[in-house]
Specification:
The complex is a heterodimer of chains A (113) and B (112). Chain A is mainly β. Chain A contains no helices and eleven strands. The chains are: A mainly beta (113), B mainly beta (112). At the A-B interface, strand 5 and strand 10 of A face strand 4, strand 5 and strand 10 of B.
Chain lengths: 113, 112
Amino acid sequence: EADIYQTPRYLVIGTGKKITLECSQTMGHDKMYWYQQDPGMELHLIHYSYGVNSTEKGDLSSESTVSRIRTEHFPLTLESARPSHTSQYLCASSEEAENTEAFFGQGTRLTVV
Amino acid sequence: ILNVEQSPQSLHVQEGDSTNFTCSFPSSNFYALHWYRWETAKSPEALFVMTLNGDEKKKGRISATLNTKEGYSYLYIKGSQPEDSATYLCASRWYGNNRLAFGKGNQVVVIP
């Protein structure tokens, strides 16, 4: 069982609310990622970080923002949620070495009404 | 964004039967291929990370092969069991792009 945790698992929230999705890992990994997945579609990378104070946009444009103040913590924030943000969000981490597997959290299923 | 294609998108397999499915990816500048198993209500878990042409890897009844020249990988499940029911994700990396690109997955349902 991977030591990477996401909270909440499910979230239903109204339009315009600010939300933060939490992701924490206890493996000491420098690399962390956020993926977004819509039903029947691929996982798309929206943010990644290669260490503390390092964050980059991924391949899919997203209105969310991330921060990496501590190695183990990589939260994702939506300042003003909209129905178009309804999706599943997966957090992952990996070791610094190339070609190592990614460890995933269980995901947060977000519904904005 | 480089595309990774998986086929078939879903399949039903009788318990005890063997099955396989395909992951296709652009072969130019290929760097690595990952397979993950994603069971419902759980996290995706890594099965294999493969880099070399002709690579074959095995974990229990599940095995995978890699052809980097033509850009495909096969995943095989031998003697399918109900616990093999899951979505199998394929992801690839290329030189000059240090992120994984995922396919849509192969959803497998094993019928007892």
